[in-house]
Amino acid sequence: MSKVNKTEVSKQEETPLLDVSKDLAADGQVSAEDSSIGNTHSRRVVVSWSGTSDELKHGAAVSISNGADLFKPQYDIEKLDEESKSAMSKLDMSKGIVTNIKLKSVFSNVDDSVTLSMNLYKNKPQIVNNVGHLYTPTRTDMGTVHTSSMDGYENLASVLPYEKARMDTDVYVPSNLLNSRFIDQYGGYTLENLWSNIVSFPNKDYFYVDRNHILLKVINRNWEMLGMNLDQEASREGSYVKVQKDIVNNVISQLYENIISQIPYTEFDNLSVKFQSNAPSKSDELKLVAELLVEYKFPMGNLENEADTE
């Protein structure tokens, strides 16, 4: 036996399309309040930058140092009751799902408008910002174009020339995050670990799938369309189920593309804010300060061992 290569996901041919309304997609619009399990946490974070006009033209990124520790709960988890402690232990606190960002205050001594942006997520989830995506002029080789993001940073606010105050302005209010049920069930998975505990055989058109794999739950809920009734499948090697390759490829592909890749994770240890201005006057003493209120929830951690739980 050999472990399956995750690139198998791209080798599907005319496999049946699953009913995404049954298990693999959210039902309509879902607000940020439904985005994840557990409580909403918040942090007020101050970012400050000083530098030259040339640096600002090219975009000056300010890293939020010790972000992973900064966004963790401030209370002692060990002092919680057993039920709360058990629930908290299942969360992945290295990343979060941001549900709101407010610009609390700002200062600028720059004589040009400055775009404030943030690297909220690496993927491209279909997020709608209720207060509007901010499109700012960006100079490229093809001329000046208006964009809402650049190099992985999402525009949040435009700081006016010499702006000295702005109170409690919502800059990011996502409205169509995935339903909490899907984040709870699949939030701990990646494309790589979806292929864990799946065994391939040379020159065979089937895989052995661990009986506790999340994949089998999806197959069971779509068994009529997929033409596979798991209740009629005998265990192989004690703990595996034999599943045709086209079914495995199809289910993993749809699960990843429709659910997992659409979860807007923010990695706290890589979080940073960028300031950028197109035409600041020549200066070596520019300064920008912003205070942000970030509200967020923690997603589930790796759920490979909880595939049987609802």
Q: How would you describe this protein?
A:
The structure is a single chain. The model is unreliable at 2-15, 20-37 and 302-310 (pLDDT under 50). The protein is built from eight helices and 16 strands. The chain has helices at residues 53-58, 67-70, 82-89, 180-186, 191-194, 214-221, 223-226, 245-258, and strands spanning 2-3, 41-51, 60-63, 95-108, 114-118, 136-140, 143-147, 149-150, 153-159, 169-172, 198-200, 206-210, 240-244, 266-267, 272-276, 286-297. By secondary structure, the chain is α+β, with helices and mostly antiparallel strands. The chain has two domains: 2-27 and 189-260, no CATH class; 32-77 and 94-181 and 270-303, no CATH class. Strands 2, 4, 10, 14 and 16 form a five-stranded antiparallel beta sheet that branches. It has a five-stranded antiparallel beta sheet with strand order 3-15-5-9-8. Strands 1-11-12-13 form a four-stranded antiparallel beta sheet.
Strand content: 25-35%
Output mean pLDDT: 81
| Low-pLDDT ranges | 2-15, 20-37, 302-310
Gross morphology: elongated
What Rg do the Cα atoms give? 23 Å
Residues in helix, %: 10-25%
The description of the largest β-sheet is: 5 strands, antiparallel
Q: End-to-end distance, in Å? A: 31 Å
| Count of DSSP H/I helices | 8
Number of strands: 16
Count of discrete structural domains: 2
- Listing every helix as H and every strand as E from the N terminus to the C terminus, the arrangement reads EEHEHHEEEEEEEHHEEHHEHEEE
Find the structural class using helix and strand composition. alpha+beta
